[in-house]
Structures are given as C-alpha cells and as structure tokens.
Amino acid sequence: MNTEALSAPATIGSLSAGYTKEDVQILDVFAQKDVSPTPGFVTDFMGCKSRTSILYDKARKFDNQVWAPPTQGAFFPPEEWIGMLKAVLTAQESFSAMELGAGSGPVIVATGHAARMRGIPSIFLCGVEADPGRFILMQQHLRDNGFDPAKHELIMAAVGSQVGQARWPRIEDPQNAAGARPVRAGNRSDASYMQYFKDEAIEVNVVAFSDLLRKRPVWDLVHIDVQGWEFELCQSAHAELNQKAKWLVIGTHSRKIDGDLIALFHNERWVLENERPTVFAYDAALTSLELMTTVDGIQVWRNPKLDASAVSGKAPSLRRLRLVDFGLNGAGGAAASSPANAGDGGLNKGRHIVTVSETKLENAGGSSHSGKEGRIVTDSGMEHNNDSADVAGLRERVFARRWFHRIDLGHGIVTPGVDDSPAKLCAIGMPEDLRDKSVLDIGAFDGFFSFEAERRGASRVVAADSYAWTQPKSLFDGQGFKIAHEALHSRVEQKRIAVEDISPETVGMFDLVLFLGVFYHAPDPFRYLRAAASVCREMMIVETHVDGLDYNRPVMVFYPGATLNNDPTNKWGPNLLCVEALLKEAGFKGGHFLKPYHPARVPPIETVASDK
C-alpha cells in the first residue's frame, strides 16, 4: 500500500506573485498527518476521498494513495485551495457553498469536508452541472464523503445570465471530456468556442445565476468555472453577489476576462485577495480568445460588505484541525450523528422497502420454470475464466463505459457503478436461501440483483427491463448487463419488456418478484403494481421513494417536470399508508415495512421473514 505524498508542499516560489507565507500556512491548518489511503479512491491531504472511477484516466494510477498539500495535478492548484479554505475559515455557525460548472462536485465536497472538520454544525452544498454523466458522478462523490445529496441541492442545468435553453454535447466519457460549455442559439462566441466538439448535442436547461444566489440568505463561497461565461454571469448578478456572497473563487479562461472581472469587482469595492493570471499562446488562426488559453487563471475575491474578514495563517483560531472519519458512502462512523447529515432530507420524505406476501390471486395460472439445476459458486458466487488475456479484456470493457450497479465480476474487477448496490442489498431483506425458487427482477438495469438471486440458489431468474436497455451509446444501452452476464457465465434470462406488458402469459409466474426503484418512476403506478402482482406467487419486495409521511391517510405526491432531484422520470412519492393500500388493492394479504433506507448510507435494518 503506497502512502507516498504525490506532490511537494506549496512554497512562495511555487505560487503566483502576491501570495504570502501566511497564505501557505492555511494549507497546513487543514493538513492531516494520519490520513490513510483507501483502495478504489484517491485521498487528499484533508482526508477527503475521490473515487478513482470518477477521475480522468491519468489520475487513476494514484488509486489507493494520498495526495499531500497542495494536491498539484489533482482537482485544484494551491492558489485555488487557498481561496476555498479562506472561505471555510471565516465561516461561523453555518457554511454554504455553491459550485457552478461543478462536474463531479470537487469544490463543494472538499469545502464541505473542511467545514465539517472545523465542527461547523450546519452545512449546505449546491452544485450545478449541465452534463448528465457528470451530474451522476457528483451525486456519488457527495455520498462517498458522507453528504446525502437529498439534503443539499444538486441541479442538472447550465448557468446563465437568464433562464432559457442551450445545446450541450452528448458526452460519452464524462470523466475525461472537460472544457465544454453550452451553445445558445445564435451566439457566435459559444459556437466558436465549441467548434472542436463534434459530439451529438442535447438540449439542456439554463438557470439564472441571480436566481441561484437568492436561494440562501448568504453564501460563504461561490466557485465559478464555466469555460468563458464567468464575466457575463458576474456582471448579470453583481447586485445579488454584493448582497449574498462572502467569497468568490473564479476560474478564468482568457486575459480579457481576467481584466473585465478585475474592473467589475474593483468598482464594486470587493478585495482581490489572490490571483493567478491566465497563460495563453497567441494564435491568429483561432477565432476565440478562450481557445488561446493554455493555463486557466484564478481569482479570489473577498466581499467586505458582508464582514468577510481577511485571513492570516498566524491567527490563533487557525489551529490544526482533527480529521473526522465519516466512512465511505456515509456508512456508519460520525456521519450518522453529524448535524449536517442527520435525517433523510425532511421528516416527510425518504425511501422505504416493504416485503409483501401471500397473494390472493385466484386465477394467476402458470407455473415456475425450473431452469438448470446446480449453482457454480466461487468467492464472489459465480464461475470465472482465469485466462489473463480474457481478464485484461474484461477490465478494459468494464472501465470503458459508465455503470449504474456495482457488481463484483471476480479477478478484483468491480463495476464502477454510481449506485451502492451492496449497501442496498443489505437493506432490502432478500432471502438468503433461494434454492428451488424462481425470481423476477423488474427494472434489472445492469443486473446486480438478478445475479445476486442466482448466487443465492434461485432455480430460475428473469431480468426484465426496457427503459434501461433501449438507449444506444449511453448508460441505458443494456451493454452493462451483457458484459456482467458474460463475465459471470450467468444463466439469468434476459427479457426486454415494458412493465405494463408483464403478465403470466408474457413472463410466467415467480415465487419472488423484485420491484426495486421502479414504482415512483411509473406514469401509471397502480398499473405497474398490478402487473408486478399478477406474476407473484409468494413474495414481492418493493423499494420506493416515499413522501407525505406526516399525513394519517393514504396520499401520493406528484412531482411535475424535474422537481424531484432534477430527474423528470421521478413522478410519485406515496406515503406508507398509500403503499400498503395499493398493495392490498393489488391482491396482497399482508406485508412488513422495513425501517427507512437512505441511499447515501446504510442504517440498521430490521429484517423480517415472509408470512409463508
């Protein structure tokens, strides 16, 4: 295990002009001597973890290692770190940070972690990212460091001077494709900047910067890295910035933008604490100044109107902070009791699993298909090919695509899914022994739960999906299931079918039906539920988002548009009474509600057995 420091400590000579010894000492305030590396992650000098699979390819060689201050070559140079940590050091009883052009959210996660190290009781993080792939990475990055995305605000959109729409390249490799910006209709500057991005474009929403700033009484830190839109954004919302933002850290993308921002904030009486100018190479053939930039600039601005005091590394309050281990994915440790991460994002929301059994379906018909007998069990539960060439080829295929589920394929290869599938498995109460049982997994996606049912001895397993297997060249193309199925030499049957078309005639009957994360996406949830119930012989496990828990009668909340987690496929939030009533209407006698399950961490689960 390599704990070698991956970068030399910052010195005055290694920084841009204008930095002091006290500025450098701010890094030492947060540096931890006892940070341990974690397999599958790169860990920074504060103990904040970045999943290796979300990093760009060249950084993945640092897996299971620790970056020392100032993490040169990681997410930010030392000048950026210093500006970010100044905002943390001047915060008092609360800390709020906004990151525009967030990518995987490295700034809000790092500063949120630093604020937590200081013992700040109330932490709020807001990340705004237009790319769907990077938005998923951001959700995972928060979870990996003990922040529940449901308690913060992550917005899948571009940021502009006004509300609207823009075109965004469909990026197949979000970890490595940096530097994109939205293209507005008729905007020559956008088109010129994006002329080298040849990917197919998608439509994205644009939210107004001023509207974002109005979401909080004050922002301790606003970080902006928007590939050439930075001056336009700040100019459009300068009044709100004066009233709401204590610190600004801005990534700049041309010499002109450097000067425009300095003129703007100097005239508004802000203080330029630190800066690093952009570096550029003039090229008469280029039509965009931003394309001539070879090294982005950094500006750190302090707003004296909001009593954002200057920071000195010698100040008595800047003692070395103690590292708090919050655990991976927010599981266990201090995260469960941290004020910033307590609860599930509101007393009336969360996720629940319910196990229902003893169906009353008199005329269900059909019989389970026994399938082939015998299980092939190794350490990970499946048969594996040990040929080194095959293993290398499998590894290449796995890491060449995005995944939803986290599946152990053997040979040390685990698919880098954004869903903490093993933790969810602990929560749902799937029977340990499924010998001689048939299982239908509705909404199978990459197949984690299908393969797990097979590993537990099920005589027949059918993985059913439609939406997640029918969108070429995306996370939803079905190739993840195919790769895992081949690697595990699985006998799971694949059935491409819409939920509403499931019936005894189309798929047969099953002893166990898994209905995980499907209900709340349904355009017609009762129709989906009845379809699932129609093929269930003994037990069905339902996992769903819930809402309206403060009502004492069955209710279901409807989410128009993308109002739930910025995902337009999220439609419904029933309360537990509603789930129970719908299941009884579908023909189930009884059931057991398990304790709430939070995707960001695994709480203690009270498992229950079937009534059968």
Overview of the structural elements:
The protein is 24% helix and 21% strand. With 612 residues, it is an alpha/beta fold. The protein has 2 domains: 259 residues, Vaccinia Virus protein VP39 (Rossmann fold), CATH 3.40.50; 206 residues, Rossmann fold. The strands form 6 sheets. It has a 7-stranded mixed β-sheet with strand order 6-5-4-10-11-15-12, sandwiched between helices. Strands 19-18-17-20-21-16-24 form a 7-stranded mixed β-sheet, with helices on both faces. Strands 2-1-3 form a 3-stranded mixed β-sheet, with no helix packed on it. Strand 4, helix 3 and strand 5 form a beta-alpha-beta unit. The N terminus and C terminus are likely disordered.
